[in-house]
């Protein structure tokens, strides 16, 4: 009878997890999780930056389309360049400011005018997105 009881106790003592095994497993999972956190944070930051760049690129395209829609005269393009552009706030709350370079009329007509548009964060000089296009002008005014 004692042999059966001893054998039973030996089997029961090895069943299941001990508290130490559970703590070691939790510690290993915590180390793995800590290793993944920097990657997740970096991915979130990159996603936010890509969203701002996409919005800035869209604004540049809209400004160039607006320039192309004007009359094919140098006066119309100079008026376009002189217009005040309101800042645009993207979905994340970042304020973006589209800007245009000075329009230089060609010495003779017909000719080509270079239009350069870029977008910065409001209050910054760093260009997030920029583009240049050439617009045919048939006359000065």
Automatic annotation (TrEMBL):
Keywords: Membrane, Transmembrane, Transmembrane helix
Protein known as: Type II secretion system protein
Organism for this UniProt entry: Leifsonia tongyongensis
Any Pfam family matching the protein: N_methyl
Membrane-spanning residues: 20-44
InterPro entries: N_methyl_site, Pilin-like
NCBIfam families in the record: IV_pilin_GFxxxE (TIGR02532)
